[in-house]
Amino acid sequence: MILLGLGIGAVMTTAFQGATAGVHHEDTGVASALVNTSQQVGGSISTALLTTIASSATADYLSSHQPGALTVAQAPVEGHTATLAWGAGIFAIGAVLSAFLIPNRALAPSEGEPAIAH
């Protein structure tokens, strides 16, 4: 779980850097807020979507198999498997879109004074 958190942190840092590169100095706050809002809304929508997929797959498995302890134990596994498959598919589509839509060149420096790290 720690590695997942580190990976997400690295991706978010890169996303913020790429999204705000080349923005005029007076617009950097707005650009950063827009990226943050987009990530928050996207995270909420994806959580709702993947939860719906998991619930639907679990309910479908329960309704299509004979009732019993083994069926009840296997149903959540089927829900998680469906969610993982859909999540991997969405990730792959996003990777392909990113490869075509994000320019492959050095980031333009922002204008103004360089920021000093604290």
Question: What can you tell me about this protein's structure?
Answer:
This protein has 118 residues and is mainly α. It contains three helices and no strands. The protein has helices spanning 2-20, 28-64, 69-101. Mean pLDDT is 80; it is low at 1-5.
Mind sketching the topology for me?
Layout: H1 2-20, H2 28-64, H3 69-101
Label the structural class. Answer: mainly alpha
Major sheet description: none
How many helices? The count is 3
User: Proportion of β residues?
Assistant: under 5%
State the share of residues found in helices, binned by percent: over 70%
Q: What characteristic shape results from the CA principal axes? A: elongated
Rg calc? 20 Å
- Unreliable stretches covering 5 or more consecutive residues: 1-5
